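Here we describe the complex-level prediction in full. Unlike the single-chain runs in Section 2.1, the two entities below were treated as one system.
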Amino acid sequence: MAPVLVLVAIVVVAGLWLVGMYNRLVALKNQTQNGWRQIDVQLKRRHDLIPNLVNTVKGAMEFEKGTLTAVMEARAKAMGAAGPADASRKEGELSQALGRLLAVAENYPQLKSNENVKMLQEELSGTENKIGFARQFYNDIATKFNIARETFPTNLFANMFGFAPAELFQIQDAADRQVPTVDLSMSKS
Amino acid sequence: MAAFIAIFLIVGLGIDVFVIGDAQSYLPIATIAALAIGGGRAWWSFKYGDRAVLGSADAQPLEDRIREAATEDDRLRYRQFQNVVEEMAIAAGVPTPRAYVIPDNDPNAFATGPDPAHASIAATDGLIRSLNREELQGVVAHEMGHIRNLDIRLMMVVAALVGAIVLLADWSTRAMRFGGTRRMRRSGKGGGAAVVVFLAVWLVAAVLAPIIGRLLALAVSRRREYLADATGAELTRNPMALANALEKIEDAVEPTPAIKRGTAHLCIADPLGKRIGERESFWANVWATHPPMARRIAALKEMAFGSAAAGS
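The structure predicted for the assembly as a whole is:
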């Protein structure tokens, strides 16, 4: 009688452990997907903010038409991107165009003292920060999921249950790693 | 935590065995009653504690401050604070907490709320005005760390246990005074040496328990502060920012009168104004809710130089 009971106990405990492990993987997988979507939320927020910024500075920065149109074009391209790899590259180009615009705006003292512009700059740099932190969080939670997936003994069952490894967000284009060059000369561009 | 539970059980079961003790019934009535009362108080402060804490500090919602800001500069700073809170919530993967401002010129901040979905962060005017954006981000990241690590809930449980221990100790000493000795003598005859030893341990524990309980609670609070510092550095990936913020906060010596005694353990710096950092003796440290500022800053700088050395 006793050995049968022990066997039953072992099976029950193993079953409970399996259930716990599966649920944990499900929770992490969903959090990872949520993290990915959060990045899109922040990217869209940036798309919505840009026209406002460009309009506010347009009046004072007449000589910077080139920089301003570069921003609007990059934005349009980013909004029309096809697929995550393409979107990632176009968003990177938009970040660079914005960086150039914000740096050039330093040349205009009347802009620097304009409170509306300062508020908009704060909103824009806040949005850049949020995009960065959303990516950071996505990588953190994807790493947690991958660790949970690959640790023994969970790794024996993970593939069986269909948990594919999560891809970390990385820079696709080598060009993105370069610090954007900023031309601060007063030439009309 | 184990020490807590041990003390609690010693005092509680002691009462049940020696004061109420009946060989027939095995139900530890006093222990259960103390747990129930302690638990009830904890549940109440869990659900409504955050409103009480924010109310006692005169905290104003951040949206009101942004709307009624006196100068554009102020409005910009409040807006920065709002953005920083949202950024750190994204980095931590928690819903954005409600933000409040406390009208006090001394820099300090705290987080409260029963769980990450219903959390609040409050900062004083002094903090928002004296830190730059990076340092403010570090402080908010530290508070977000408290929220994400469920420290507030942990401290509520700890406070409930301390409350229950104090209750039990109180009942024990009362029982000893008002003639619980009859049962004690009876059970002393019945159980022999082991019972006598347990009786002695119980008497000592009943007297010392409230003090030991509070010291343990403070030790837990200090450990969680170090953890929140580390989580803050992890969220921003910028430990130096928090280290600089802590240095600035420490330099502003005055106590924060707006934050009352009961919420001291929730803040980023001790609001009661004790210069614990200067007196690093053992006794000064065990009664503190926060670790000495110098050690916190050193730990953060180590993180910063450690990662710099690894990267270079």
